[in-house]
Amino acid sequence: MNEAELKMSAVREYLLALQARIVGALEAADGNDFLLDSWTREPGGRLEGDGQTRLVEGGALFERGGCNFSHVKGRVLPPSATQHRPELAGAPFEAMGVSLVLHPHNPFVPTVHMNVRMFAAFPADQAPVVWFGGGMDLTPYYGFETDAQHFHQTCEQALQPFGPELYPRFKTWCDEYFFLKHRHEPRGIGGVFFDDFAELGFDGSFAMMQAVGDAFLPAYLPIVERRQKLAYGEAERDFQAYRRGRYVEFNLVFDRGTLFGLQSGGRTESILMSMPPIVKWRYSWAPEPGTAEARLYSDFLRPRDWAHETPGPAWA
């Protein structure tokens, strides 16, 4: 293997191990095995490569959830991947990553998304251009300050070794990215997001991506453990289904990962795994003032410095 191939191999090895580790922990939390759908794209088409879709539907904890690995190569970078790098338009590429979305049954357990990925473009007569992207964000239906603080503090701790400026920068980026412009509201309470990142060199940028991927389970599972046994009724499920509509709107209209997958000829079932199973829309609806549902809008769906706020009581 040459140097570039060794680097690609190291990233692939890490991502497959990350997927296995996350799925193992989620299977233990749910009590059900995740389906395994391995796939291969043969050479000669728009894409070649392989991947693993790991999915649970109708689990004890997760109504629908999945954690996917993909590694693909293509002849031409799609528009979504060259949005900020127009000089690479038309270049062959290689991309690999792990992406997950979890939609729990219990409305008091938040939906969560995490993604870590690497892109390499191979422009003619130039050295390969490699960059990393990813992050994680939390989408609660009922807000709890301690959950938001824990999630953000875990993200901050993961990024701290790479520079104190990265967490506030990536936190702001996340707030701005996961924003529904047509609704004028955030999708959730954010987390961290980064893209087109190579400023620490290959080794440093790869290490930072690994730190984000490794932080997912400690960021999310303690929240699941605190909330999964809280009692709920049809009213809470109804509000959850309504708010899930925002998730669908963002993924289908704005999400670069979804657009990249569809534009590059990726596997539709794996790409749309992120869609929640039960969703509702209403015309010009708002929650009653003073309710827990209204508090989601007033207290949580706005930028806050979650990592540095004074923690509330354990149940809050």
Automatic annotation (TrEMBL):
Q: Binding positions for substrate?
A: 99, 115-117, 265-267
Q: Kindly list the biological process annotations in GO that this record carries.
A: protoporphyrinogen IX biosynthetic process
Cellular compartments annotated: Cytoplasm
Q: Which UniProt keywords apply?
A: Cytoplasm, Heme biosynthesis, Metal-binding, Oxidoreductase, Porphyrin biosynthesis
Can you cite an annotated GO cellular component?
A: cytoplasm
Residues annotated as signal peptide: none
Q: In which pathway does it act?
A: Porphyrin-containing compound metabolism; protoporphyrin-IX biosynthesis; protoporphyrinogen-IX from coproporphyrinogen-III (O2 route): step 1/1
Look up the domain of life of the source: Bacteria
Chain sites annotated for binding a divalent metal cation? 103, 113, 152, 182
Question: Which sites are catalytic?
Answer: 113 (proton donor)
Q: Where are the transmembrane segments?
A: none
- One Pfam short name: Coprogen_oxidas
- EC number(s) from the headed UniProt entry: 1.3.3.3
Q: Region Important for dimerization: what ranges? A: 247-282
Q: Which molecular function GO terms apply here? A: coproporphyrinogen oxidase activity; metal ion binding; protein homodimerization activity
Say which enzyme class the record assigns.
Answer: oxidoreductase
Q: Where is the site described as Important for dimerization found in this chain?
A: 182
Q: Which cofactor does it need?
A: a divalent metal cation
Q: What does this protein do?
A: Involved in the heme biosynthesis. Catalyzes the aerobic oxidative decarboxylation of propionate groups of rings A and B of coproporphyrinogen-III to yield the vinyl groups in protoporphyrinogen-IX.
Entries under PANTHER family matching the protein: COPROPORPHYRINOGEN III OXIDASE, MITOCHONDRIAL, OXYGEN-DEPENDENT COPROPORPHYRINOGEN-III OXIDASE, MITOCHONDRIAL
Stated family: Belongs to the aerobic coproporphyrinogen-III oxidase family.
- Binding partners and assembly: Homodimer.
Q: What is this protein called?
A: Oxygen-dependent coproporphyrinogen-III oxidase
